[in-house]
Amino acid sequence: MSNPPICKSVGPYQIDMTQSLGKGTFGVVYLGKEIKSQEIVAVKVINLKGNEKQLDSIAKLCQNEYQIMQRLQHSNLVKLYQFQRTQNNMYFMMEYCEGGTLDSYIARKCPHKNQLKFLAESEARIILSQIVNGYKAMYDQNIVHRDLKPSNILMNKGVAKISDFGFSKILFDFENQVLQTFAGTPLYMSPQILNPQFQRQYSTKTDIWSLGIIFYEVLYGQTPWRATSFQELMVKIQQVPIKFPSIPKVSDQMKQIISKMLKVEEKDRMSWDELFQLQIQQDQESLVNINKSVIMINQEKDILKKKNLEKNLNRGIAQNIQHGIQQQEKVEKIQAKINQNSQATTDSSQTSVSPPRKEKIFSQKEKSVSPIKTLANFNQTQNALGKEQQEQIKNNSLIKKISDWIIHKKNKSEFLNRLSQQLFEQWSAQKFQLHSSIYLGICFLLTKYQVIILYKILTRLSKKTLNNTTNRFSENEWYIFCQSKNYSDSLKIIKKDYILIREFLIELVKRTQQALFETQIEEMKLINSIANIEWVEKSKFDKIFQTGLLYYRKIVLDQLNKEKNDRSYLEFAVRLNDCCRIHDILKFQEIDFFKYEDDITNSSNQQLLEQLQK
Q1: What is the largest CA-CA distance in the chain?
Q2: Is 147 a catalytic residue?
């Protein structure tokens, strides 16, 4: 008896039948590649042989999925490259998402065994926003998904994408059409599908329910109702009100949104327009804040204050390289518009109303199918195919790790920037009137540390060499990274940050030198000795940095009783306290910057006070 083929060639694609990526609604997903470009793809294979009795229904379902994917083109939806049918199988050649499923992404972010698997709200909002954007594209094409769950959300280079359209359906009337098919995964099914008392009549709001369950699970690491059977789950949904744990901390706004999405009665449940309007409102608020910041920059006369505003413009924790690029591009577009004296309302008007529904029906003709060809020399091809794929996947993993390391450095710089900005705000509020020279000295230290971090990364990126200054990666691994798109994106992000911070430092150095010229404070004398833009040996800088911050922390904590009801003061003091242990707290692959910021933002004044009194 001959062994089954381990590699297949289908049209311009090769499929490695030994590399299963998982199972879809129908069939198994394998690793493959496009022969000419060598691009890795995911191939869903639906076996028709042995399913003769269900052949017509399977073929119909696959044809439906193909037609749906053919209509959908959006960055937050998994792409279909090609669909082919042979005598024994159907093949969906699709975008390969290297980050895996959303639940596996969260699990990697929370590696400890007994740790709840959840994301910080600030990071969750980024991903949830992408999911809603993807669904908006489906809505515009009158398509309901009916099987939304974390395992059907894939992550590719930090971008969330809706996948698996096996249960999806094209509707004539998205808002009002009644559906009856039992479809989906029980834990994420709306009660209208689960409960026979509803006579299994439901609307597209079934996907609103599924999204609500996903949102809850992403934020809390568990679903709102857990059960061991359909019956138990239905009873709990109907009889047990939704509860929000106190830990992790989630904003009241997000709790209210989830509560509206998880209303048992469809008439009470949030509508699609309401959900999309929330997204639009969030985008508008972001644009308005950037507009205000750019206008303030253009109006500011004091050079130091102007540079401070510029470096803080829309800065924030970056999730990954792609997110960092998006942050920069958003600011650059608005800056360009304002600098050209154009009205910044153009973008706002474009996002203030939902785009018109698209009623165009796309062509549903199936492309001509190339006959399947099983490769003659299975072993030889399998080895070549497997080796190339494994090498590419290995390189992709390496590229991601180095990208994550660079983003970690950027976020460490952002931590220092946020602290210096809060220091500036405390000074502006005249909390430390008697310590002008000290304020400038500490602000200089924080800014110079940022420049050192960014300069070291920028030098490595610009020269495409590590210069033997880190043992984390080899020169060959760094070379592989420098051939990737992530390299050019990383270079752009770090270079922009470095330029802005360095320009601020140049102005700050002048003020610091003046303020510390005749200082009698020993700690300030040390800071004054490096008050320039020249490179400082790391051990020397670390010693002065530690000495200066510990001295300033004492000044801040001495006023703790007086300022214990001042929220901004408490947040500033906690960050300053942590900055004194920066090397212990902000370790690569150990610190989640989103959770760190959320913990401070969502903690009560009393909790922050207790943290400072330890």
Answers
A1: 92
A2: yes
